[in-house]
Design goal:
Largest interface: A-B, 58 and 60 residues
Largest sheet of chain A: 2 strands, antiparallel
Radius of gyration of chain B: 24 Å
Number of strands of chain B: 3
Order of helices and strands of chain B: HHHHHHHHHHHHHHEEEHHHHHHHH
Number of helices of chain B: 22
Number of domains of chain A: 1
Shape of chain A: elongated
Strand order of the largest sheet of chain B: 1-3-2
Number of helices of chain A: 3
Helix content of chain A: 55-70%
Order of helices and strands of chain A: HHEEH
Structural class of chain B: mainly alpha
Strand order of the largest sheet of chain A: 1-2
Membrane topology (chain B): Multi-pass membrane protein
GO biological process, one term (chain B): carboxylic acid transport
Helix content of chain B: over 70%
Radius of gyration of chain A: 21 Å
Strand content of chain A: under 5%
CATH superfamily of one domain in chain B: Sodium/glucose cotransporter
Distance between the termini of chain B: 76 Å
GO molecular function (chain B): transmembrane transporter activity
Largest sheet of chain B: 3 strands, mixed
Oligomer: heterodimer
Family (chain B): Belongs to the sodium:solute symporter (SSF) (TC 2.A.21) family.
CATH class of one domain in chain B: Mainly Alpha
Shape of chain B: globular
Protein name (chain B): Cation/acetate symporter ActP
Number of strands of chain A: 2
């Protein structure tokens, strides 16, 4: 049941080589990571610090927008980013059959 | 005894009894339980434990006060101390959990080499000690105000309780105690915040409503001779705000006592979800803190604005006893306010008391004041316990058994771990009584050091197979020495004179540069020396995948 590197069951569409799926999984993981970290940088460093003075000219419900990003918005975004990461990685693990499961096949 | 002291005693006493009971119920006899709680903690509980472990006296006691006085620039703490979890979740937690042993130096030892492990163990001890001193001080402040003890006495009482349950229970006991402590802490933080929001804006969700008072706060701040509350870069130059935020983020992701909490989950997936739950629980307090800061600042200024010195509200007198609030000699009415003792303002208020004094300043009833005291102690103690565990495991596991005695039995290991913890407590008590700087500064130290030593070599260790032992060792040492040198140069530590900041970079922000230096040195030196062995490269490859591949899934995708 465990199939790590033998070439007996290569993935459809995977690049040649026995460990093609590994590279593919890792690449998808890295791509997801780069996208999420870019958003992380934009909401905190760009909106909350670099452009804070410009954004502060917009005031919503009493909050200057730049200050709102720095003191509220960035934190909400961080929480969502981690949630998106965990859910997408669950899907990726399943897609490549590398999720940890107990004897009955349930997720750990 | 006043009502406030009686209620503080009740809440503190009841919560301490609960912590000790939990520690007793979950006491351990084997090292796996002692260090990583047998790796069976559910993700939500682990998230709450991470949150308690993580949110220290600095988060609970100091942060809202710092934001109140720094205004917009106080955001460095909010973004810095939460954004680190994104790095932790995406770059470290799942991979370190997959590799799955006891300590951070141990990963470094396996990934690089034994002598790099020793450097990491020493760095972990330095970072954790620096941090635990801040916690002891925080505990001391709470006791000295609410229980009528001296700060010294408070530090000793807190240390004894922490020692008892940390030694008995190890990580397993700490985990469940920390879940209880998170609950106490968050209830103690939210109840006064909701009440104040309701009182001042008519709607009990402070996150939504504190915008309403910002304009008023700006105007009143200027009247008191301070910068407008919402004005950016009034307290720090822009470059420093950037660097401090980054330094706190990568420091968070590099703190050994936080990382080790991700070893306690059942699975890699559990580690990812723990990070999510941790940030949800932390976010609850962190999105409330700027509101508490704003409301309390407004309340504080309104309650003393133009008031004669002999007619000041009661909380001023209560806190004057601890010398954390002072009225200038010769002042007759209050027209200026500051947190800086050298500013010459009529009223000086120390950052560290604001949260504890919030309910009093807002005129909330005594039970709520007592509850906040219990919350502050929960915050200080849960973090101190986690830190002591790291010190204990670094000394016993990474130094003693890897170097001195390799064939030690389980019971010998536990004994040495507990002795190390006892010694650590004694040193921490001394540090708490004679702190090298105030709470938030001491904590910033720990972060800068964690950022400049651990974070780069951990991330490179996972994402760059070519990183080798010589590279990591040089990177860590150069990063640590560089950062510590700049901090000692710019701060008054143990009596050294404080020098001017270079290019406006504060000692809190230097960790970012230190980490960058570490990264560059590690990469360059690795490139110049031999690549790591096949075996190590294979290990790095292995930790990238949560489990071995199951063939059954392949046929489904066909």
């Amino acid at each position: 049941m465990v199939d790590d590197r033998p070439a007996t069951a290569p993935d459809p569409g995977s690049p040649p080589g026995a460990n093609g799926w590994r590279q593919e999984y890792w690449k998808k993981n890295l791509r997801l990571m780069v996208v999420l970290l870019s958003i992380w940088f934009v909401v905190s460093f760009v909106c909350g610090i670099l452009l804070i003075e410009q954004l502060n000219k917009i005031v919503i419900a009493g909050f200057p927008l730049g200050l709102w990003f720095a003191q509220q918005g960035a934190i909400y975004t961080f929480i969502i980013l981690i949630l998106v990461y965990t859910l997408r990685m669950d899907r990726l693990d399943d897609e490549y059959g590398v999720a940890e499961r107990d004897e009955e096949g349930k997720r750990l | 005894m006043s009502d406030i002291q009686i209620w503080s005693l009740v809440f503190v006493g009841v919560s301490f009894a609960v912590y000790l009971y939990i520690a007793w119920r979950s006491r351990v006899k084997e090292t796996a339980g002692f260090y990583v709680a047998g790796q069976g903690v559910p993700a939500v509980a682990n998230g709450a434990a991470v949150a308690a472990d993580w949110m220290s006296a600095a988060s609970f006691i100091s942060m809202a006060g710092l934001i109140a006085f720094m205004g917009s620039d106080g955001s460095v703490y909010l973004m810095g101390w939460t954004g680190g979890y994104v790095l932790l979740a995406l770059l470290l937690a799942p991979y370190l959990r997959k590799w799955g042993k006891f300590t951070v130096p141990e990963f470094v030892g396996d990934r690089y080499s034994e002598y790099v492990r020793l450097i990491a163990a020493v760095a972990a001890i330095i970072v954790s000690f620096t941090y635990v001193v801040g916690q002891m001080r925080g505990g001391g402040i709470v006791f000295s105000r609410f229980l009528d003890l001296s700060i010294e006495g408070g530090v000793v009482v807190a240390a004894i309780v922490i020692f008892m349950y940390a030694v008995l229970g190890g990580m397993k006991g700490i985990t469940w105690t920390q879940v209880a402590q998170y609950t106490v802490m968050i209830v103690a933080y939210l109840i006064p915040a909701w009440t104040i929001a309701q009182k001042m804006t008519g709607f009990p969700v402070p996150q939504v409503t504190f915008g309403q008072i910002l304009a008023e706060l700006d105007a009143l701040s200027e009247q008191f001779g301070l910068a407008a509350y919402t004005e950016a870069f009034a307290a720090r130059p822009q470059i420093d705000v950037f660097l401090v935020t980054m330094s706190l983020m990568i420091g968070t992701a590099g703190l050994p006592h936080v990382i080790v909490r991700f070893y306690t989950t059942k699975s890699v997936r559990g580690a990812r979800f723990s990070a999510f739950w941790a940030l949800v629980f932390i976010g609850l307090l962190y999105t409330t803190a700027p509101a508490v800061g704003a409301f309390t600042k407004l309340n504080l200024m309104e309650s003393v604005n133009g008031v004669a010195v002999d007619a000041l509200p009661a909380w001023v007198g209560n806190w004057q006893a601890t010398e954390l609030v002072t009225v200038a000699d010769g002042a007759t009415t209050i027209t200026t306010l500051s947190n800086d003792p050298t500013s010459g303002a009529d009223l000086i208020v120390n950052n560290d008391i604001l949260v504890l004094a919030t309910p009093e300043i807002a005129g909330l009833p005594a039970p709520i004041v007592g509850l906040v005291a219990a919350g502050g102690l929960a915050a200080a103690m849960s973090t101190a316990a986690g830190l002591l565990l790291v010190i204990s495991s670094s000394v016993s596991h990474d130094l003693y058994f890897r170097v001195v005695k390799k064939e030690a039995s389980e019971s010998q290991r536990l004994l040495v771990g507990r002795i190390a913890m006892g010694l650590a407590v004694v040193v921490a008590i001394y540090g708490g009584i004679n702190p090298p700087a105030y709470v938030a500064q001491v904590v910033a130290f720990a972060f800068g050091l964690a950022a400049s030593t651990f974070f780069p070599i951990l991330v490179l260790g996972i994402f760059w197979k070519r990183a080798n032992a010589v590279g990591a060792a040089s990177g860590m040492i150069v990063g640590l020495v560089f950062t510590a040198t700049y901090m000692i140069y710019t701060l008054e530590v143990f009596g050294t004179p404080a020098n001017e900041h270079v290019w406006g970079i504060s000692p809190e922000g230097i960790g970012t540069i230190g980490a960058l230096v570490n990264l560059i040195v590690t990469v360059v030196v690795s490139k110049l020396t031999r690549p790591p062995s096949e075996h190590v490269q294979e290990m790095v490859e292995e930790i990238r995948y949560p489990a071995r591949r199951v063939a059954a899934r392949v046929s489904e995708t066909e």
